[in-house]
Amino acid sequence: MSLQEPEHIAVSKSKGIDIDWKDGLHTSFTLAQLRDNCPCAHCTGAHGTEPQKTNYANPSPFQMYQPALKMLSCEAAGNYALKISWSDGHSSGIYSFDFLRRLATEGGS
Questions:
Q1: CATH classification of 6-55+67-106, choosing from 3.40.50.12280, 3.30.2020.30, 3.40.50.720, 3.40.109.10?
Q2: Would the pTM of this model clear 0.85, i.e. be above it?
């Protein structure tokens, strides 16, 4: 068991995810931060394709309308990750706890 594992996870479909880590660190992730940093192969370009990044955190001021981002569901993926389904139709991202910890400490989006 690592001190960099979650001790408590609070999910709010309208706000984001808060994690209390076993080493005492507390992190909060907004919906936009989570969606913009989706770790799936499609979003990161892991299969040699162009990364398909979103920009919910900093939308274009010239965009007429962008529907509000919503988390439709968040469920455990084994004992190591969270799987999130989004209102924009995307649901292939597996957010491992290691990934979330790095995102929190490296800043992300």
A1: 3.30.2020.30
A2: yes
- The answer to whether 95 touches 11, Cβ cutoff 8 Å, is no
Per-residue pLDDT of the chain (109 residues), as tens digits, is 576 899 999 999 999 999 999 999 999 999 999 999 999 998 998 888 888 888 888 887 777 777 789 999 999 999 999 999 999 999 999 999 999 999 998 865 4
Residue 57: name the closest of 37, 40, 84 by CA: 37
Residue 15, token pair as written in the block? 């706000």
Please give the single-letter amino acid code of residue 1: M
